[in-house]
Amino acid sequence: MTTVTVQPGVFLHVLPSQQFATTRILVNFTRQHDATSLGGRVLASNMLETASKKYPSQTALARALSELYGASFGTDVLKTGALHTLRLRMTLVHDSFAPDSESLLVDGFAFIREMMCAPLGDAEQGFDPTVFERQREISLDEIAGLQEEKPFYAARQAINAYFDDPVQALPAYGTVDLLKTVTPKEAWDAWFDTMQHDRVDIIVLGDVDVATVTQAVQQLPLTGRAIVGNPYYEQPEKDAVKQVVELDKVNQARLILAYQLHIAQTDRFQGFVFNALFGGLAVSRLFMNVRESAGLAYSVYSDYNPYTGLLMVEAGVDHAKLGEAEQRIDAELTRLQTELVADDELAMIKRLMKADYVTSLDQPGRITERLQNQELIGYHTTAEEWLAAVESVTAQQVQQVANAVKKQLHYELVGGTQND
Amino acid sequence: MTDAVTRFAPNERHETLPNGLRLHLLPRPDFHQMVAMVTVDFGARDQSFEKDGQLVKQPAGLAHFLEHKLFAQPGYDAFSRLSELGANANAFTTQTRTSYFLTAPANEYEALKELLTFTQEPYFEAESVAREQDIISQEVDMYQDDTNARLYRLILGQLFKDDPMADDIAGTTESVHSVTPEDLQLAFDAFYRPDNMDVVIAGAFDETTVRDLINASPAGQRPAVAPVSVPTHELQPVSDDILEVEMDVVRPKVAMGQRWYDGADMPTGREALRIAIAGSLAVDLVFGEFSPTYMTWYDSGMIDDSFSAEFDWERGVAFLTIAAETPEADELIDAVADELENMADRFAALQADFELVKKDALGRLINKLNQLEEIVTRFEGSTFDFATLRDEINILQALTFTDVLEILRNAQVSALTTVIATPNALDM
Prior knowledge:
CATH architecture of the largest domain in chain B: 2-Layer Sandwich
GO molecular function (chain B): metal ion binding
Distance between the termini of chain A: 58 Å
GO molecular function, one term (chain A): metal ion binding
Distance between the termini of chain B: 56 Å
Shape of chain B: globular
CATH architecture of the largest domain in chain A: 2-Layer Sandwich
Number of strands of chain A: 13
Helix content of chain A: 40-55%
Strand order of the largest sheet of chain B: 1-2-10-3-9-8
CATH topology of the largest domain in chain B: Cytochrome Bc1 Complex, Chain A, domain 1
Radius of gyration of chain A: 23 Å
Number of domains of chain B: 2
Largest sheet of chain A: 6 strands, mixed
Helix content of chain B: 40-55%
Oligomer: heterodimer
Strand content of chain B: 15-25%
Organism (chain B): Weissella cibaria
Number of helices of chain B: 18
CATH class of the largest domain in chain A: Alpha Beta
Number of helices of chain A: 16
Structural class of chain A: alpha+beta
Strand content of chain A: 15-25%
Strand order of the largest sheet of chain A: 1-2-8-3-5-4
């Protein structure tokens, strides 16, 4: 990988590779997650992927992308711990598939520049009000639609209940309340503020040379800026477990247990191995013992976020088995706290984690995602270092991690209707 | 273009072993892993067959049940063993196929060996079959909570009345609870024959090692057996009625469907693939961003990004489905019907943009060249005469506007059928 500092706070990371039939380009704008700018950023990101001055309609935009050999272009909003990223994303086919273009890469960056610099609207009124209102409607509908996806909805509700700081609980895509009140002008200003002040990481993966990419990136109007932002979030540990029960129309109940687990950054691989043993994989103890042996859940898994220290167990459970399922999950954690994991089980989990890592080397999306995370936390780990770090985790370390886990929340979504 | 495809999909090999098992090797030496699949030409729809002159009728969901149970081996679970070996394994059942596949690090073959063993050596034990009944029932429940899955099931029910196509792939709670070890063994013996299976491997591997390993494995060593005869499906006509159901949805959802080659002989092999690709292109053009009619719907708020139009082709069936959330269900149904009734003309009117949808479709397929799992799992076996992604790209590349128009003009299609899901009356 080659990193070029294009301007202070504006970085280009180039990963030349001949493995893929495509070139992937990310332009990431990152700042501290906050409630003030979030609504504007979310709606601006929707506007940026929908239209621009040059491509004022969805059809015009689609046509431009089709002419670039079915290039895909879109925007995302995402969180890395307490950081919020607004991302422009483009994938182009390898030049050898595009006989009538001199360089799709150069054409692609020209397109990105167009979308970034000349959105549909003007500085006085903000984004085009008609398209903006339509995008707002779509975003609100999407949030309403998430309500229908029960596992997702339950996880969201549990996260809201877990975090003391309501800002940290806010999802990357905002909330109905935030999106309702943003004006086209506020969203416009939020975008230009983002372009001016956020940390920028441009990532290019594909059969490209650094000089060509650097030249293309220098055409983007990005000036120097100061880098601020901290991905890590902490809150005081609670002695009592918070209990939340919510009623909804579900055939299958959702049980979510949230725990706090803070680990020093240098020890984070111990946390990853612990999570993989506990519930992060399809051979983890939760899956094997709660689902397979005891038949207490259709799905059960854990997820660990090293930036916020939130360890979450989610399970799809028969209503009649909720209590039993929780006892069994508790028992699995206790077993990891009191008994050292056997050598062969630990070796198997490590083998799986390493196999998954190797798999990710064949996935452009995961390669660029990992690079972005490493840039944001300022820790660079090569493939060899990553594999070695996982290998070096011991059974004693896993046990120590298990003992640092503290249950903070019991949340269940069960069948029924509210009385009020 | 063909050169570019070959650059990213070189040296594909297709071979047949003496026992009838087919082998497809798709090397990608730049990758860090390989994906291997055993796929059986047997799916949820294949619920009856002849054995010793007798018609055997099996419970709905049997193929999927068998897929789950094949992992249970004497004294061990094949899924866990594959995981222990560092492989990421999975399996899925469609209406017409059952597939078992895994991702393993490059040049590690123990997992492949296991895949070629457990899929050939069933072990159906009564107690574990009974336990599986409960697990699969929960899975059926979960699908019931997914409104999109329910809507899709209902539109298939309208398109394929009284045909297993209309059944949930996992079956029903009742059918699942009726499954016995004997049922599973019967189906295995009838359909899991070497000549009814394909092994597909893509990624980084050594060809000689893989070939030797397959030859020596139970998959390569099992003796050939005679095929069973499967009765042909007699499809009922599609009625143009509208089925209205209440569901736990926030906004109304509409699904519409139409069968192709209704009452006509279906094309097979590469010609079937060519028509399937052409049908998808036509749907992309007529129900996509280049159609002014479609954009009028979109801009007026009648549809949003949840709108989808798909052309599907599986062994013995070809059909088009359209699904959307909409505040104006009746208007949308009329508008879609009008487009479909005049599909060839609407397509012809959009000729100027044909090359653009074709470039888009090519772009999507080229992206899949990066995804070994996609390359392997989209393989449809004999349905498309063992075509691979490389063949798909070449067929798409060769298709012209005139080809597609001719296919649309000649297609014999059924009536259009509709399902509307409305929000529960009590919900508001």
